[in-house]
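Fold it.
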Amino acid sequence: MKWALNDLKVNKDIWSGVLLVLVVTQTILCSMGVSMGINSYYMGISDETRDPAKHLASGLSLVYGTAIILGCLVIMQTLQASIRQRRQELALLSLLGATPRQVLLFTMLQVVVLTLLASLVGLVLSPVLAPRILDFHSSGMKMPMPFVFTWHNFLRSALMSLATGIVVALLATRLTLRELEKTVPVQTLGRAHGDEVLINDKHSRGKALFVAALIVLLIPLSTSLYLAHRNPQTMSREQIIGVFSTTSSGPLLAIILLLIALSRAGGSVIGWVTRLWTNLVPSPSAVWKIARSQAVVRSRGKAFGSTIVSLTSCLFLVGGLLAAGQTSATSIQKIPGLENMSSGGPLEILSGFWAALLIALIGAVASFAISAKERNLDLALISIAGASPEQLLLISALDGFILMMTGILLAAGATFVVGAATAVAYLPLSKSFSVIFPWSLFIALGVPILAIGSIATFVMAHATLKQPAIATIQASIGE
């Protein structure tokens, strides 16, 4: 108990990132839960409010469910990053006699303390945010009446949502700490085989999830074959739309499965992508070579990977839905009577999945901050090796650039896979393979992300270089 609470103080820089993710997740889940409770209240008042409330409930449920899934994914990635930064301390604790069960209980206690603090913030803010969420979604769906905030069943809705967040946090902690049971403390202290012992078990799970995602994406193929065989010209517009609606949620499910696959077996994938694209850069600069070698080594680690997964989640959720929607809409437009069929645009997707996107974005920021300790140690070691301050700053800027570029390329590649699978699924109707890739989205978001990542690592390195390199090394190893 004392060690667990003391660790929160000693590693406050690391745990603050976890707390940030928990606060955002709990606040969003609590506010969404209260919004759904208010909507349920209006659903039972009168016939005048029942139908609009039912229509709004479906949209709120989709946002809420996606936020829960992304919340679990981001919390788990953030905890993995924090454990990687503290792995030597946990290994030393094991060598001093602590059992894996005790380490689990210690960390569970820490997560419970932080989650309760985050839940308190969410409980206080939910009465303010819930009516705004209702106004936002009701205006987006062009509801004929506003849904005014009410305290009816507020406490029950809030506590149920907060309990969901607590379960998500504890489940993510349990899944993360299962990996500690497979590590050898002596190897961890020696920084040998730090992550490799955990990779093989995840490959098969990641591949299985990837195959499952492709199967889900190809489900509309049966619909296309059915319509092509039946001749859509003999069917009404409503009948055709009804057939397509049976598989309308497939792309979202496939995207979630792909994101889970990336989080489960992302180390090798992220490392491969990092090595591939950095090898294609024809630069003889020694600074680039050092920055690249550092990124390649760290790309298989949890801190690097958690930032990539969270960043990829943001871009892929929007880009994948755009690619699937626009590709399918282009194919469906070739059916007589559906020439005017269109899909949702970027703003509609952003407004529909704002909660999940916000959680993923905060997860990327938190993981980026958690990995600062590792980056600072690398800079200190290079400084001792003889690098000048100007070279160190440039290496840091390139480090952020490589990190963000890897996330963007992964999201772009996954988006193309979704678009290509959708094009194959609708091939019997379109009679041609045509993928609609959202280039404008990745350019509009990718350029600012690259700039922000480079500037952030540059500024953080500038602050680190103000202290002696030996002091940074001593702080990193706990002396």
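Residues 184-198 have pLDDT under 50 and may be disordered.
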